[in-house]
Amino acid sequence: MDWATDGPSWPNREHSRFVDVRPHRWHVQEAGAGPTILLLHGAGGATQTWRRLMPLLAERHHVVAPDLPGQGFSRMGTRQRCTLRLMAQDIAALCEDQGWSPDLIVGHSVGGALALELADHLHPSGVVGINPALGAFEGIAGWLFPMMAKLLSMNPFVPLVFSRIATSERRVAELVASTGSEIDDHGIALYRRLASDRSHVDGTLAMMAQWDVEMLAERLPYIDTPTLFLVGEDDGTVPGRVSREAAARMRNAEYQGFEGRGHLLHEEDPEAVVRAVSAYLDRLAPANGDASPRGHVSNQ
């Protein structure tokens, strides 16, 4: 997508800016003051996924949300750094460059796995995974992502073909519905804009082609970072059992389920997610003996 044409109508655009930290050019949104919360979106999404949640969090917190490399308005400097480990390294470098020391890392789906991987680099007080992708995708995404990633490795024109097919509002609505979530027409339209953009599709497929969550899954019993999983019980993409089993294997993890919600829990019910995130961060502060924020006031 092009910022000159798409930026003026992008959600929370007044908080957007671009940052060059090698090897990528990052689109980031930053708002609010207080303890710092880093938001990481899932595969195929971008900062638009936080359109309703970010302003609510920013009432009490300093909130930072980047587009992952190659997705949304962020541009990849290299296609070879889309593994879980290398993407975490690059996000950590972005945070260091900007002086962000997150008190809490909140990640949705793939972003949930990134949040846990990033904990080794940024040492936050805690991590919140919203329907985190800590296992294989199911439903449409379970066969679509692997198939498209495999095709991408054979034919570089796959993103162009997919982006043309995905201009159908009906197809995008069907894909969103398969996640078990119901979101408004504006949300559907934003996903349609993303899915119809060749560069965004290419970035998403490059990440899925290199996705390697197995090593993280093996390390779960050794992760000490306090972790909260917020899960829509009707998730058709990453079943709730994935997070329940992960929480049971971890030393300091909790599971909170939401009946009647799907994979896009934070878009369906941002108020409930904000309450859960804020309450969790408040609980973590006394345990650390310091309720003061580790981050800084937004310069926006």
Quick recap:
The chain has 300 residues and is of the alpha/beta class. It is 44% helix and 15% strand.
Widest sheet, order of strands: 1-2-4-3-5-6-7-8
Strand portion? 15-25%
Can you write the helix and strand succession as a string? HEEEHEHEHEHHHHHHEHEHH
The number of E-state strands comes to 8
Mean pLDDT across residues: 86
Q: Termini separation (Å)?
A: 23 Å
What does this structure look like?
- There is one protein chain.
- Helix content is 44%, strand content 15%.
- By secondary structure, the protein is of the alpha/beta class.
- The protein has one domain (3-136, 210-287): Alpha/Beta hydrolase fold, catalytic domain (Rossmann fold).
- Helix 2 (53-57) links the parallel strand 3 (36-40) and strand 4 (62-66).
- The two termini are 23 Å apart.
Keywords:
globular, Rossmann fold, eight-stranded mixed beta sheet, 13 helices, alpha/beta, disordered C terminus, 8 strands, 300 residues
Topology:
Blueprint (H helix, E strand, L loop, with lengths): L2 H4 L9 E6 L2 E8 L4 E5 L12 H5 L4 E5 L17 H15 L5 E5 L1 H13 L3 E5 L8 H16 L3 H8 L3 H9 L7 H11 L2 H12 L4 H6 L7 E6 L7 H10 L3 E6 L6 H4 L1 H18 L13
Parallel strand pairs: 3-4, 3-5, 5-6, 6-7, 7-8
Antiparallel strand pairs: 1-2, 2-4
Helix pairs in contact: 3-4, 5-9, 6-9, 7-8
